[in-house]
Amino acid sequence: MMNYRIARKTGIAVLGSALLLGSAGLSTGALAAEGEIPSAQAAPSSHSMNALSPSQPPSQNFNLTKWKLTLPDASEITNLSNYSNAKWFYTDSATGGMVFVAPNLGSTTTNSSYTRSELREMLNASAGTTSYGNNWVTSTSSSSIKAQAGGVDGTMKATLRVDRVSTSGDTSKLGRVVVGQIHGPDTEPIRLYFHKRPSDSKGAIYFGTDDLNNNNTWVNVLGGPSSLNPSNGIALGQKWSYEIKVVGLKMTVKVTPEGGSTTTVNYNLPSGYNNKYLYYKAGVYNQNNTDTTSDKSDHVKATFFSLTHVHP
């Protein structure tokens, strides 16, 4: 079997016994996935759209006051008021959606080999990224840690469409993109993937979750890394929503295709995540760092139509 790697992870995927499966399953195994949506599919039906203005920068359509942005040249934008970037972060001229683009090849952040156009939650930017005050903790953390944190537990919700995934380069990396995360100091409780190979009609939705030793577990939602092209998957250009909620050590992930039913998966996080600072991320984190196109233009792209994060 080929040895596939995900994001910056170096450990092998292992099955966790902590899964509480609803209508979704779990699997481990290989990765692999497609290209651009036809122009006729570019805009979702108007009745489902939020009141977004195509003429405004993303910050005028979305509350971005508690986010910073990392771009595919590894730069960071901490003040997103009226900010846009014509290549990597801008407003869709037809729908008003917030567009994220990340090429296969580009500069990367520390400890990663992949480019991103991705928002990073900043609950109190002045406190610094490693401060509890800028991040949140679980409600099962100690009282003293919770008193320092910028929030306790959390819910992130997004509605989006994946417009394009990579189609060239290493076959084990085709069509993979992370569209939502919870990040910790050294590990990630969740990386939510859309994965569609060029031969697939629909993309799979699944997530990877780490223990505190950086061992990764794959969890199926709509298909998984070894069950791609699921009949209930998501097509390029199709709107769908996700919710990632943490209460104590219980993480709940919901995925809903537009006009379809919701799939819910519950997962118990390791107790080591108590007293760890956590933060949400949203956008596109390209999982292909190879490109065999003649002009090296292969990339991923997604458009978000809503994005919220709360910490009750």
Automatic annotation (TrEMBL):
Domain Alginate lyase: 62-310
Top-level lineage group: Bacteria
Signal sequence coordinates: 1-32
Matches recorded under SUPFAM superfamilies: Concanavalin A-like lectins/glucanases (SSF49899)
Gene Ontology terms, MF aspect: lyase activity
Keywords: Lyase, Signal
UniProt entry tagged with the keyword Signal: yes
Protein's name according to its UniProt entry: Polu(Beta-D-mannuronate) lyase
Lineage of the organism: Bacteria, Bacillati, Bacillota, Bacilli, Bacillales
